[in-house]
């Protein structure tokens, strides 16, 4: 049975996730608490892993109850704890020193800061897909692949690339349910400069994107909508969630059901 095996919330965009047993849908379609905090440079652009490899040298944890962000560098030479309401200026100074560029901290508790503003729902992948992709890059582990692709929802009980059933031709959606929540799959997610890097060190894997694209094309399942692949550096799916689903919850263990089958 297809079921939800893992839920990851990323409180701070580009930093470490929190595994939870349940999550609430917001009116924007995002999971409550996901990517609601973001770092920005003095031009208003994201300071993230796409542009700042030093993100990989930063460890974090976030306490939502106290709104406190704990940070440390992997070498242990820099660390700090910052309550977002009282210590934001100090946090921005700390981040500016760490990254070597001016950094501001912003919050959007309503919609967060999704990568795809047209499909701001949770991203989704299957455990089978993570295992298959890990096999393309020895000795990279499944846990490392999971960290590299940073997906919110992980399904199990299905074969690799099962999630490629959850989108169709451009301009269409494929509806599916996780528990009582209806979601709409929109497109296979275009990947960036982050997956080729070791999440622990920032070190790049040689020819990662090229190898990935070649293997993705070779293993593309027959149920995938091939017209959505102008290139094959795509993995996981982006989703939208209808506004009337706001307030509903998904839970680890929930059954996944296709409403628009491919």
- Give the strand line-up of the largest sheet: 2-1-10-9
What spatial form do the alpha-carbon principal axes imply? globular
Integer average pLDDT? 96
Given the structure, what is the number of helices? 4
In terms of per-residue confidence, which ranges show pLDDT below 50 for 5 or more consecutive residues? Answer: none
- Give the structural class: alpha+beta
Give structural notes:
The structure is a single chain. The chain has 262 residues and is α+β, with helices and mostly antiparallel strands. The protein has 2 domains: 3-7 and 116-258, no CATH class; 37-107, no CATH class. It has helices at 88-99, 127-135, 142-149, 208-219; strands at 3-9, 18-20, 22-24, 37-40, 58-63, 68-73, 79-83, 104-107, 124-126, 153-156, 174-178, 181-190, 234-240, 249-251, 256-258.
Question: What are the main properties of this structure?
Answer:
alpha+beta, four-stranded mixed sheet, single chain, 262 residues, 4 helices
In short:
The protein has 262 residues and is an alpha+beta fold. The chain is 16% helix and 28% strand. It folds into two domains: 3-7 and 116-258, no CATH class; 37-107, no CATH class.
Strands, helices and their partners?
Layout: E1 3-9, E2 18-20, E3 22-24, E4 37-40, E5 58-63, E6 68-73, E7 79-83, H1 88-99, E8 104-107, E9 124-126, H2 127-135, H3 142-149, E10 153-156, E11 174-178, E12 181-190, H4 208-219, E13 234-240, E14 249-251, E15 256-258
Parallel strand pairs: 9-10
Antiparallel strand pairs: 1-2, 1-10, 3-14, 4-8, 5-6, 6-7, 11-12, 11-15, 12-13
Helix pairs in contact: 2-3
């Amino acid at each position: 049975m297809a079921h939800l095996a893992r839920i990851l919330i990323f409180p701070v965009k580009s930093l470490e996730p929190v595994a939870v047993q349940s999550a609430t849908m917001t009116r924007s379609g995002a999971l409550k608490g996901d990517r609601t905090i973001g770092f920005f440079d003095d031009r208003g652009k994201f300071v993230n892993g796409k542009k700042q490899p030093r993100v990989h040298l930063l460890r974090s944890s976030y306490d939502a109850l106290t709104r406190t962000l704990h940070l440390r560098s992997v070498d242990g030479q820099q660390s700090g704890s910052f309550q977002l309401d009282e210590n934001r200026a100090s946090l921005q100074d700390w981040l500016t020193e760490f990254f070597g560029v001016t950094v501001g901290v912003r919050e959007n508790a309503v919609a967060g800061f999704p990568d795809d503003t047209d499909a701001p729902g949770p991203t989704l992948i299957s455990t089978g897909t993570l295992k298959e992709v890990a096999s393309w890059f020895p000795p990279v582990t499944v846990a490392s692949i999971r960290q590299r692709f940073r997906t919110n929802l992980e399904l199990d009980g299905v074969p690799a690339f099962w999630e490629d059933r959850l989108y169709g031709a451009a301009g269409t959606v494929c509806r599916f349910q996780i528990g009582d929540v209806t979601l709409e799959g929109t497109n296979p997610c275009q990947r960036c400069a982050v997956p080729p890097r070791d999440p622990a060190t920032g070190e790049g894997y040689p020819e990662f994107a090229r190898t990935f694209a070649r293997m993705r094309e070779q293993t593309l399942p027959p149920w995938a909508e091939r017209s959505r692949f102008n290139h094959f550096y795509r993995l996981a799916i982006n989703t939208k969630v209808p506004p009337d689903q706001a307030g509903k919850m998904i839970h680890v263990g929930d059954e996944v059901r296709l409403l628009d089958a491919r």
